[in-house]
Amino acid sequence: MSSHRDLTIQNSLVIFCDLQVGFQKSILHIEEILDAALFLRKSARLVSIPCLFSEQWPEKYSHVVDTLEAREEEIFSKRTFSLMGSPTASELVVSKKRECIIFAGVQSHICVQQSVLDLLANGFSVFLVTDAMGSRRSIEHTMALESMKQEGAIISTTEAVVFQWFRSVDAPYFEEFQHLKRPQQ
Length: 185
Fold this sequence. Notes:
- Belongs to the isochorismatase family.
- It comes from Galdieria sulphuraria (Red alga).
- This is Ribonuclease.
- The chain is α/β, with parallel strands linked by helices.
- The chain has a single domain (about 15-175), classed as Isochorismatase-like (Rossmann fold, 3-Layer(aba) Sandwich).
- The protein is about 40% helix and about 20% strand.
- The protein contains seven helices and six strands, in the order E-H-E-H-E-H-E-H-E-H-E-H-H.
- It has a six-stranded parallel beta sheet with strand order 3-2-1-4-5-6.
- Strand 4 (about 100-105), helix 4 and strand 5 form a beta-alpha-beta unit.
- Helix 4 runs parallel beside helix 5.
- The longest helix has 17 residues, at about 30-45.
- The model has no long low-confidence stretch (mean pLDDT about 95).
């Protein structure tokens, strides 16, 4: 019997929050964050796990970085800090019918935290892939992670999540997965 917190390919949805061109210069360790996010994106795509990409106020902060290869139908724009505050985004998340949300993005203490708290309040299990998250200041990132953990979010990493999806070297697509470039330290 699986619990609400057991990640599977069938119950997972990946959300990439505001990984936009306009935030690249202000976020600490952005290259490492994008590297981990790309690994997560490619791993999810390999096993057909749906992904969504939010864009915070794209008129000001531009669009999702090209390296993440977001498809038009996966992207939604928002002006609220919580993606659940946007009716379009909220409907998109619910329409995927997945109870486990894998969450990556920026800024940890603003849009990520408000979105995660709303997702938890709506009954979702949320897994924070901390190597694919960040803020302008490390204290903001650290405190946001602590706050979200206290509210019930599960702290993890991209590799830990992806290996939970596969569970075994005998899993379908595991051989192809072995050829993906993993995040650097």
